[in-house]
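User: Predict structure, ligand iron/sulfur cluster.
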Amino acid sequence: MPNKDTFCVLPFMHLSVFQDGKVKPCCMSNSFFEENYNESINFDTFFKNESYQKLRDDLKNGVKNKMCDVCWKVEEHGGRSFRHEKNAQFKQQYDEFMENENAKSELVFLDIRFSNQCNFKCRMCGERDSTSWYDEREEYWEREVVDPVRERLKQWELDDKVYDYISPFESKKLHILKNDFTKEELSKLEYVYVAGGEPLYAKKVWDFIETIPNPENVTIQFQTNFSILEYKGVSIFEFTKKFKSVVYSISLDGLFETGEFQRTNFKTNVFLDNLKKLNEEVANNPNIRYDFTFTTSILNVFNFFETYDYLINNGFIKDYSNLRFQIVKWPAHLDVKNFNVVKEVKEYYSRTDIKGKYKNPFLKGDIENFITYIEKDGWVENKEHLENLKNYLIFSKDYNNLKLPNNLEKYI
Ligand code: SF4
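Assistant: Predicted complex:
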């Protein structure tokens, strides 16, 4: 029987494929496989590749493979890891492998990013995930004396493979996944997570959706900035009517000046208008639902309740039950742990207990993991981070002609 302390069902039924064909065992994993999906003959050949097989063997045999360090670290601190979460979500497949470790591996869950085409350039993002970043990054990068990414990796003592993930693409071009999936390869699919770029306006996404053979068995989840609700003049809701369910996971890191600074090109009025349309759609289509992801950086860490309380107080959402919380770890000058604010963060987030808002166990776990992260992993505040943050804020505000939110003025 596989070792329960390390077994993870994902590498047995899942791929996380990026725009340039690089693949990870899941979106949270620390590194990519050597093999590139664009270079493989087909899915089956790729799924049986040597590195993937090695990871599966390690996870079955109690070996904490480095690719999954992100989970081991959370678990060491007593937290709920992505591995725990996915083993519970795909319990049927998990139980099958527990009973028979040689059960057949099939593609049940696909996480896919077809292109980096995006209309936003969020402060913690880069050209790997957004074409809108090209020009700004080029100018910013030119001003850096050292390669900031490699410097960080040295400090983190991380594998060079991670560099491929967080470093920029080498050329300014739109990156589109080349290798397509056939209907047959998608026949066992139950869950698809589509991210980007911004997936709701990418041709390749809608072509792929047409290819899925049994949509009535499939839940499709879009990670979206929710700024565009039409494709070629047709409402996006029309394209997914046959699916078992559709989930819009909306990235919302703040409203008004905070949201508009952290996610450049985000417009609060457009967003609220789109959310109203989504609520109307949900009322008529029970197969549609949505949730939010709040991505936490030093720019918005003290704006979480203000954001979602505004939505509650203005009748857009009922409560905090459909919320998740993510941590910005790169660039380092946006990572909360580098600014010695543990005490203030703990105090601010203790409101969740007082108001009993958090009937959502996932959100509770996310926030606990965040506090553990900034407490146990944190560097002490140092001049370098403050200096980098100051330069970055000034550069970002001037380059994009943005107003700096009041709460950030103390940093410049
Ligand atoms: S153990 Fe964690 S990092 Fe590794 S594949 Fe599973 S969820 Fe992903």
